Amino acid sequence: MKLDDSDLRRLNKVLRHRLRNFASGIQNAVKLLSSELDERLSPQEREYFPLILNECRQVGVLTDRLNLLFEDVPPGHKAGLGDIVAAEVSRLHGEFPTASFRVELTPEAEAAILSTSQHVETALGEILVNAVEANPAGTVHLSGDASAEALHVQVADSGQGVPPEELEKIFLPFYTTRARHIGIGLSIAKRLVSGLGGALQAACGADAGLRLEMTIPCTAAGEIATDQAVYGLSAEGMKQA
Fold first, then answer.
1. Of the four, 91, 106, 148, 214, which is 20 to 30 A from 52 by CA?
2. Which of 18, 41, 70 is the last residue of a domain?
């Protein structure tokens, strides 16, 4: 039996509900135990409680990201590409202080206005996180250009790269080569960009690492065509996108 998009949406809703309830129950139990046993525990034993609570919070983060993969995404509001890039780079500087970013946007790309920015912002965020995690102490190079036809954004990392025969697999949901990763970031980005009528492609870097190229069609006056509906895609749909 093959699952279609509606099946995956229902599955996502059930898993999200059960996982959140499970995490909430553990959080409440840990807080109660921490309060009642505080005076009986050693400092080393108390350190386990924050670790457990953090893992529970990560379950919430996971379910939110699964929604990006299977559910409709709010369109957001108008915003400039330059502002979106600056905000994402600033956010990632805080999360990955050892990483470096080199941003080169043409004036046309800097001034491009996204009519509904949330889709591009989310996709770009996932692409940048993937690039940083490839080499947290390396440099991520982001470049962009815009014309009357399309917006082009390229992100290159300085990691070990991906074998050419594996390039298409990186967009499949839950495909990953890294420990403690679930492999949905690039699937989310691919889904959102494809839903805008655009394309997200991967290539081997010139020297090393991975290069991801995002192309989004433009409308008149330089606005990005982000008013198309974004719907859930099955794994097979992702592969064909």
1. 91
2. 70
